[in-house]
Amino acid sequence: MLGGFFILALSSSAALTLGSFTFNDAQFGNTLGESDGGAFRNSNWLNVVNANPGNPGALTGANVDTGIANIGLGGSSPVYTIGYSTPIANGVGDDLGIISARFSTGDTFSLAVSTDGVTFSSFMDFGPGLAQSTGVGRTYFYGGAGPFAATLFVTPVDLSAFGIGAGATIQAVEITAAPEGDLIRVAGLGSGSTTTPEPTSFFLLSTGVLGLGYFVRRKKRA
Fold first, then answer.
1. What is the DSSP string of 3-39?
2. Smallest Cα–Cα separation from 117: which of 2, 19, 33, 47?
3. How far apart are CA 188 and CA 12, in angstroms?
4. Domain total for the chain?
5. Up-side HSE of residue 20: CA atoms within 13 Å toward CB?
6. C-alpha angle 174-179-183 in degrees, rounded to nearest 5
7. pLDDT, tens digit, 9 for 90 and up, residues 78-88
8. How many Å is the maximal CA-CA distance in the chain?
9. Rounded to the nearest 10 degrees, what angle do helices 2-10 and 199-221 cross at?
10. 137 is in which domain, residue-wise?
11. Which long-range CB contacts under 8 A does 129-135 form with residues at least 24 apart?
């Protein structure tokens, strides 16, 4: 039992890191709403394998394997609503990141946020100048063609810009792009993805180990 506790206390889950950005792997979204019912995604999906990832797989899950390309191309700008089972809090600094694949430059993402998953803020534009290269390359199939190479960029977002109070949380976002944004994910940044023992856990662990050592020594002397 002690050995089992030891493993549990020190276990951790690896967070996704792209360049200087570390994402909370519990905040990659669980649900995906599509304003056009998925018509655009069905022709413009991105995937590391040659298959349509479907809904919600195109824009949810703790990975950067899938996405939707060319949002806004030809004036078609479907809105994608991503819901989070683990809310994203307004902490210190940037709170979420828009991950995009740079097949082209000059793309603007428009983002709205919701504290209850129902009512959304006004859209706010995040232009191409705000996107930061992660230096991470990725190869995707696009709508059945490819594969094509791209570099992943992250546009950091501070929830304070939407009037979200310190410590308050959002449960969903709405996002679209123009003129041809290649969206991979909208995910939470920062802590929460790695499990670290609390001080009491360290105390129990250390006293348990010491107690075991004492018991072994007593048994040898018997």
1. HHHHHHHH---PPPEETTEEB-TT-S-SEEEETTTTT
2. 33
3. 18
4. 1
5. 6
6. 45
7. 999 999 999 99
8. 84
9. 150
10. 17-192
11. 130/155, 130/156, 131/98, 131/100, 131/102, 131/155, 132/19, 132/20, 132/21, 132/156, 133/19, 133/102, 134/18, 134/19, 134/20, 134/21, 135/19
The residues facing 175 across adjacent strands are 80, 111
Instruction: Using alpha carbons, list the distances in angstroms from residue 147 to 46, 48, 151, 167.
Output: 10, 8, 13, 42
Task: With respect to residue 209, please indicate whether it lies within any of the assigned structural domains.
Answer: no
Q: Are 41 and 150 in contact, with CB atoms under 8 Å apart?
A: no
173-222 pLDDT, tens digit each: 999 999 999 999 999 997 643 333 344 443 443 444 334 343 334 434 44
CB 111 within 8 A of CB 88: no
Q: Is residue 28 part of a domain?
A: yes
Q: What is the CATH number of the domain that holds 140?
A: 2.60.120
Cis peptide before 56 (omega within 30 of 0): yes
DSSP one-letter code for 47: E
In a domain, 71, yes or no: yes
Nearest to 61 by CA among 222, 180, 184, 176: 184
DSSP 67-96: EEEEETGGG----EEEEEEEEEE--SS--E
* pTM confidence score: 0.81
Give the number of residues written for the chain: 222
In a domain, residue 82? The reply is yes
